[in-house]
Structures are given as C-alpha cells and as structure tokens.
Amino acid sequence: MLCGQVALIILSAVMMISSLELSHNPLTEAGIGETATLTCNVTGHESGLFYWYKMSCGYMIQTVALGYFDSVNLEAQFKILRFEVKKVGNVYSLIIRNIQKEDEATYFCQAGAAYRMVFVNGTNLAVNQYDVETSRKTLFGNTTTVETNWGPTVIGLGVLCVLCVIVIAILVFFRD
C-alpha cells in the first residue's frame, strides 16, 4: 500500500514537472540615444485588432499603439517623433528612436478579433546609461538580442527540489 502511494506521488510530480511551460520575454538592450526595433509576428493568429502595450516597473500599463486591420496608430502620449509603428505583412514593428531611460519597460503585443485577443509576445527593453555604441557594433552588430536559456542544470535542480519536498511529505505523513 505504501509503495503504491509513493509511486503515485512520484508519478504525479514527474507529470507536473514535464507539463511546466518555461517561458520568458527576450531582452533587448539599447544605449541612450540609440534606436530599438521591437517586432511582433502575428502569423497564425487572428489579427483584425492589434495593440502594443508598455509596462514599466511601478507604473500602470500604457497602450502605445492600436490598430484595426492594416491601420495602426500611436496613442496620444506616444505621438512624438521618437516612436513609430509599422506593419509589413504579418509583422508589426514598434520603432523607438533616441531612446531615453524612461523607455525602459516590457513591451507586449496583442492580436486577435473582437472576442478573442491573445498576447503574442513581449520584449524587455533595457536602457544602458553608458555609451555602448562602439563595443556593441564591434562585437554584435547594430542590435543585440539576448535570451536566457533554461538549461538542463536548472531543470534538474527543480526536479530534485520537488522530489525532496515529496520525500519530506511522505516521511512526515507516515511517521510512527
């Protein structure tokens, strides 16, 4: 009986871990005064309606741009020369020129129809306050995208941690 319960708990934990979806937003870095282009590919999604959002730490989410079918427009507070939004095929682009520190945020795009909207992706825009123009062009080209990777070590440690919790729970539950 005890072996059956232990096997069931371990099997449940393994199934839970295997079903975890590890997702993250890519990081785009830019220096003050540089230009960043954020893209959103809506291929495979309904795209009659489209939105760009800005979420800065400690502030309310702002709508940067919204569109209906092929017409996408910036909201009033972003209708300045530094922001531009374009659509080419199924790819919407948000271009931010002369980047300032206040542009640092997570930018999300959302597409869909009237009753079915989905967030397609998000990008973390990090603004460096020092001059990285020379080193970035030398090492990486004009734009740099850095993505974190959940390697096997992190996943293995997570599985090990869950198994330890299960063993502790079993020991506590069946103590004599």
Describe the model.
It is built from three helices and ten strands; from the N terminus they run H-E-E-E-E-E-E-E-E-E-H-E-H. Helix content is 26%, strand content 38%. It is elongated, with a radius of gyration of 22 Å. 15% of the residues are buried. Strand 8 and strand 9 (116-128) form a beta hairpin. The chain has 176 residues and is an alpha+beta fold. It has one domain (23-173): Immunoglobulin-like (Sandwich), CATH 2.60.40.10. Helix 1 (2-18) runs antiparallel to helix 3. Residues 33-111 form the Ig-like domain.
Please give the share of residues in helix: 25-40%
Shape: elongated
Spatial strand arrangement across the major sheet: 5-4-3-8-9-1-10
Order of helices and strands: HEEEEEEEEEHEH
Alpha plus pi helix count: 3
| Arithmetic mean of pLDDT | 77
Structural class: alpha+beta
Could you list the spans in which at least 5 consecutive residues all have pLDDT below 50? 11-22, 132-139
Domain Ig-like: 33-111
Transmembrane segments: 150-174
Keywords: Cell membrane, Disulfide bond, Glycoprotein, Immunity, Membrane, Signal, Transmembrane, Transmembrane helix
Main location: membrane
